[in-house]
Amino acid sequence: MTTTTQEAKPSASSWRGVASEDQDELSEKVSVLLRARSRRLLGDLLRPYRKKIALLVTIIVISNAAALSIPLLVAIGIDEGIPPIRKGGDPTVLLTVVGVILAAAVTQALTRQAFLRLAGTIGQSILLELRRRVFDHFQRLSLSFHEKYTSGRVISRLTSDVESIAELVQSGFDALVKALLTMLGTAVLLLAMDLHLGLVALVPIPLLLLFTRWFRRQSTLVYRRTRETVALVIVHFVESMTGIRAVQAFRRERRNQEIFEQLNDDYRGANARSMQIGATFMTGVKLIGNLTIGGVLLYGGYLAIHGEVLIGVLTAFLLYLRQFYEPMQEVSQFYNTLQSAGAALEKLSGVLEEQPGVPEPREPEALPGGRARGKVRFDGVTFAYVAEMPILPRLDLTIPAGQSVALVGATGAGKTTLAKLISRFYDPTDGRVLLDGVDLRGLDEQTLRQAVVMVTQENFLFSGTVADNIRFGRPDATDHQVREAAKAIGAHEFISALPDGYDTEVGKRGGRMSAGQRQLVAFARAFLADPAVLILDEATSSLDVPSERLVQRALRTILADRTALIIAHRLSTVEIADRVLVMDRGRIVEDGPPAQLIAASGRFAGLHQAWLDSLSQS
Amino acid sequence: MPSVVVWITSTVTACRKWAKSRISPRHLRETHHQATEKRLLRRTNLVGMPPDTHIPRRPLLSSNSLWRMKSYLRPYVLRLSLIWLMAIVGIGAAISLPLVIERVIDGPVAHGDTGALLPLGLLAAGVGALEALLIFLRRWAQVKPVLGLETAIRNDLYAHLQRLPMGFHGDWQSGQLLSRATTDLSTIRRFLGFGMLFLVMNILQLITVTVLLLNKYWPLGLLVLASAVPIIWTSLRFEKRYIKVSRQVQDEQGDLATLVEESAIGIRTIKAFGRRHHVYDRYDDAALKVYGTSMDKVRLSARFFSFLEIIPNITLALVLLLGALAVGTGALTLGALVAFTTLMLQLVWPIASLGYILAMAQEAMTSADRVMEVLDTVPAIKDGATDTIDEPRGHLRLEGVGFRFADSDEPVLHDVWLDVRPGETVAVVGATGAGKTTLTALVPRLIDPTSGRVTIDGHDIRDLDLATLRSIVATAFEEPTLFSMSVRENLMLGRADATEEELAAAVETAQAQFVYDLPWGLDTRIGEQGLSLSGGQRQRLALARAVLSKPRILVLDDTLSALDVETEALVEEALRHVLRDATGIVVAHRASTVLLADKVALLRGGTITHVGRHDELLAKVPEYRELLAQDADLDDAAEGALR
């Protein structure tokens, strides 16, 4: 979907408007040939199963040999078994052949079952390993990666991409292997029976390969077109339904219907093309197969008449030929599966090669005394997302253990950056951030997260009960401790009023609770985690006035005996702090207890006056 | 001529493969389209949604829904009969090809007759070409009706869904609706397009061949028939279990997707608490579950497919044994035995595939029920159309209005009385959950009151033509809905005929001039699939959209909440002009917004407790003071004070 060409003409689709598409998703190089890193990943995943794969190959060869032998055995039974019976009633040969057929049938069934199970086990194990590996890797990658990569893409890597590989493992692989082996086995059999006739029978193969190449190209195009068109249908459908309020309120129905029918028709067109290509290819292969049979019949018949070929051989030829061409059709059906699995593997291997921007220390240091006290120090810290534009030019700051610090400043002043550095979501470009005198980069994840917890405006609740969500702060907490935490925050009351109290399942993303209630749960979670340093990044801004008052009361409890950094949104929050830092363009411009700053005539005093004015205005 | 037997036997193997390549369990598995749809579902923000496996209950005649869809095939009757004809002739060609080859070998080759070889050989090639041609034509012919059916139903479904009111959409997740419009329709398409054809063809073939077999030599015929019993029984049983376990895998993958979604969206929380391992363990449990169930599926299929292959092979061995003995005693000729094995093997796949096709039919019926369930829902909000207003003045009255959700005992609103005279603006103030949004939804009839009535210029709005009503009323919602379309299209949602001047004026009123600075100006795609805008920008667009439709009654549902102080002041100034002419309902949280209104209605506990001027209420009503005398917003103030 190259936007430039599409948008140059104001066509029927001009309603869509112009956008620069996410290149990564759409211009995926669709190629069955894997790039080096995909091959590495695949090799890596397959390596533990080397022996099993060797076994698998043995099994499939036996299975195929057994399957191919049965028609031959029946022929032998009739050719060699019946004459003795006719002559004297001696059934030995017949019985032997029937016995061998039975044995072959049983062998074939058993090996086939073994193959399916073994292949399934290997496939599913690899899938499990891939899921685990990618998930774990995403969790290890730092926040800077996630902010760039977006959650939507993380999700599609772990769902749709893994599923396209699963699809190949589940349905494509078995048929693919079977088809290839049948073709190979048949070709060998044909050439072994009669080299001359065999070569004649295999003459159309180059034609077939050309035809297959045509199909592959067409199918790649059509596949992409189908995906694009169905995406538009789905997006339009879903947006109309989720935005039905606006649709109906603004009488949008007719225009929507026009657009939808157009999109639906495009999808139909792409689907039709796909069906036509499929039909053409399959019947084309069939035609080539049938004509080859005709040709072999003529040529072989001619040879047979002149005694150059045995009739038995000719007949066997014709029959094996029929099963030679069928698998081609099977393979073609899986081409798309193979293709999307290849693309998915490519993307996944790309993710797995990403390195965490905030690496774990090789040799973790211990905090003095084994437990964090909460003294935070910025030692000549510089931070920049982009090299030339430092957010924090050079910062020196010491926060003694137990102090509550409020950060005030305009958007972009660097408040959140400061918070992210203390919680080590990012590492400073230069300088050090120290907790109790230890560089944060020297602490292992466990120690750091136990000591420093950040609560943001984004109060994410996981699926599960309310209690589970509070316990997220400390997984080994007892029910009693969970309740105590909720009580301390002032969340106990509303939680008890929920249908199942603490065992109430929070709806999807905490949907059934109000924003304020969700935030209270998030606070309880942080309180239960009991960190030495607590960072609140605009944590109360989503609350309405009554809930905020409730939280502010709780904050006094939470902040006692704890180092706290509060990025404040409202002045009333600032008032509970021991110390206020006013930031401007990455620098601390004012620093002192709130009362002292108000008394002075700096920016904070100005802010405070503006607030007083706004109160009296309303 | 014993060696003739060889090839016939193996011809039959080929026939078996032939049938298998046509009808295989793959047809029941997901096609590529479906897989794509599923992937896209995930991409369009419906991630983690549990798969919708809801099956509507239909006690009577469950094939009913599917049968009712036949009208969609009506335009293609002629084409369909041709397809059926070609299918039957094609089968005939496929069966006769081996027969021609048999003649070649029994005739010219056996007797060294070069002259007869050429015509018969050409005939074989001709029959082969005919077979391929017939399949080709049939499959091309099938494209139109099969896709036509699907496309037409999808269009109708979409049209119907647009008619269904908010109440319906509140109960149904868009993902559920989508799975009906995509997955279910594909299932129906596959059955009506292919499955049904094969069902009839298979049954035809079954009957013919069975009769032939019994006719040839009944003891062996009975043996073959007996061998069919375990195949049918097993494949039916297998299908049931296979579908069940497939659904389970689907469900578990849905659970897994939910965890993935949470881990991606909640990454900050996870990192903040250092709960990587905790989250990983949860995910791993779910991944192991998927693994376990998938392995059940693998074992089930492995058993079934090997069983399906061993039965015919054993039968073949028995037929050979008994048949050969019969030939020895002269009860059966050699030729008959050969024909017998050929025919017998032709039966295997039609029988086995019956199981698949029946399961496919069942799925299609369920899908049809699910689609019809939506199509049969009667819109609860009916177009009045008995009454019109020629020159609406915009006198809005709520007369004892109450509203209660169908599944709740507590009313959201009760006894709401409000009179808004033409040109007047009323601010609605209330705490979260007081019912403000419900109240605003009543005016354009997005919902209907459960008691009382709403009137405009004295007309009950339920008697009005919906299109008229909604051209009188325009709403700017708090959560502005932007579609993945150009800015222009988004703005002109309610008025496709707006001129450039009107557009510019609306943009200015809403202080949305930023749209001109977007990369492609008004043609820039915004929304989920386009450029993302800030909350404030989105609200301004929603406002411009509402203003552009030049309504007599303008409803603003807390439309300014995400704007910074400066922009808000500008927007309010511009709105004053708009609201001078129109009747206005303004839901407000901030004092400054309230000041837009001529009077204020305080909504508490689902009813309007006070109506009056802002300063009156502020002075007299403590609850009102509590709601509006809030803190200053430091960020906003800081913008001003610090620069």
From TrEMBL, chain A:
Region (Disordered): 1-20
Compositionally biased residues, Polar residues: 1-14
PROSITE patterns reported for this sequence: ABC_TM1F, ABC_TRANSPORTER_1, ABC_TRANSPORTER_2
Domain annotation ABC transporter: ranges: 376-610
Organism of origin: Nonomuraea maritima
Record's keyword annotation contains Cytoplasm: no
Name used for this protein in its record: ABC-type multidrug transport system, ATPase and permease component
InterPro entries: AAA+_ATPase (IPR003593), ABC1_TM_dom (IPR011527), ABC1_TM_sf (IPR036640), ABC_transporter-like_ATP-bd (IPR003439), ABC_transporter-like_CS (IPR017871), P-loop_NTPase (IPR027417), Type_1_exporter (IPR039421)
ABC transmembrane type-1 domain ranges (all copies): 54-340
Protein localization: Cell membrane
Gene Ontology molecular function, alphabetical: ABC-type oligopeptide transporter activity; ATP binding; ATP hydrolysis activity
Keywords: ATP-binding, Cell membrane, Membrane, Nucleotide-binding, Transmembrane, Transmembrane helix, Transport
Principal location class: membrane
GO annotation, cellular component aspect: plasma membrane
Transmembrane segments: 53-78, 93-111, 175-193, 199-215, 303-321
Family: Belongs to the ABC transporter superfamily. Lipid exporter (TC 3.A.1.106) family.
Superkingdom of this protein's organism: Bacteria
Keyword Lipid metabolism tagged: no
Coiled coil feature spans: none
Membrane topology: Multi-pass membrane protein
TrEMBL record, chain B:
Domain annotation ABC transmembrane type-1: ranges: 85-363
One GO molecular-function entry: ATP binding
UniProt keyword annotation of Nucleotide-binding present: yes
PROSITE patterns: ABC_TM1F, ABC_TRANSPORTER_1, ABC_TRANSPORTER_2
Gene3D superfamilies membership: ABC transporter type 1, transmembrane domain (1.20.1560.10), P-loop containing nucleotide triphosphate hydrolases (3.40.50.300)
Keyword Transferase: no
Pfam families per UniProt: ABC_membrane, ABC_tran
Example of a GO cellular component annotation carried by this entry: plasma membrane
Cellular compartment(s): Cell inner membrane
Residue ranges annotated for the ABC transporter domain, each copy included: 396-630
Membrane topology according to the record: Multi-pass membrane protein
UniProt KW keywords: ATP-binding, Cell inner membrane, Cell membrane, Membrane, Nucleotide-binding, Transmembrane, Transmembrane helix, Transport
Residue stretches spanning the membrane: 76-101, 116-137, 191-214, 220-238, 304-328, 334-359
InterPro entries membership: AAA+_ATPase, ABC1_TM_dom, ABC1_TM_sf, ABC_transporter-like_ATP-bd, ABC_transporter-like_CS, P-loop_NTPase, Type_1_exporter
Family, as annotated: Belongs to the ABC transporter superfamily. Siderophore-Fe(3+) uptake transporter (SIUT) (TC 3.A.1.21) family.
Protein name in the entry: ATP-binding cassette, subfamily B
Organism: Nonomuraea maritima
